[in-house]
Amino acid sequence: MSGFERLKEIADGSLEPVYNVYQVVYDPEILKASYYSLKSNPASLVVGTDQKDLNSLGINDEYFSILSNKIKTEQYKPAPIKRVLIPEENGKSFEENALIKSRFASKLVNYSMPSLADDSGLCIKSLNNKPGIYSARWASDNNYERAYDMIKKSLEEKKFNYSYEDEGNYYLIEPKSIDQIDIKKNFIGEKGKMLSENLEVSVSFHNESPISIQLPNQISCKIDKTDIALKGQTVSSSYKPATLDNGIKIQVPPFIESGDEVLIDTRTIEYVKKI
After folding, report:
1. For a Cys-Cys bond, which of 172, 223, 252, 254 suits 160, CB 3.0-4.6 Å?
2. pLDDT tens digit sequence for 211-242
3. Which residues have a catalytic role annotated?
4. Closest CA to 273 of 247, 249, 255, 248
């Protein structure tokens, strides 16, 4: 049975792969067909690190018979190739590291083919985009606990009470030291409207600069105005628009009326329940 016939019967399920694949591998006709399939790819003619290409191997029909016999008798040993070390990615940006890898790959094939490479990492906005290009060093060997520990060590969290605001800032006071800090309104966004007098918040610092502020998960607010529920409107059918006393617009159930106290989730700015 030829290698191609054996391969067809394996594909059809007539033969067990475990006992027949090896016989397919060392079949001279299979080896020859594989060679010409490989040769049809232009990349196979590129000179490698051993300064040889496929045409320089002097392959002929006799070669396949010799190779087949060596594989069959377990005497075949692939020729060693020159070891090439991948250069260190010591760029200062993702772009520079990608260029290092791309240029290295191009050099391996004597610049005969285009080479594309990329580089990526974890960029945490609140850590000034760290670890960035050093992400692999932060979690070497997939040690993510070590990475989390490094993040925690670079952060400092303090409790503050909201004091007041002006046109562009919110002002917070640390109860113990009475130190005051200011945080830009555009840094907090719409959630800043939920700050109320003496509300306790958590502020995270990196290199002594505030990088995030966390309000309590839920706070109470008063409904300033909302539409009257339509006749036949139920809780399950739809919500209606409402405006809180701090100006934030939310969706509430139809039974909520102006003046009602409600609980708001500060993480999503969504209605939770009526108080």
Report:
1. 172
2. 889 999 999 999 999 988 766 555 555 889 99
3. 119
4. 255
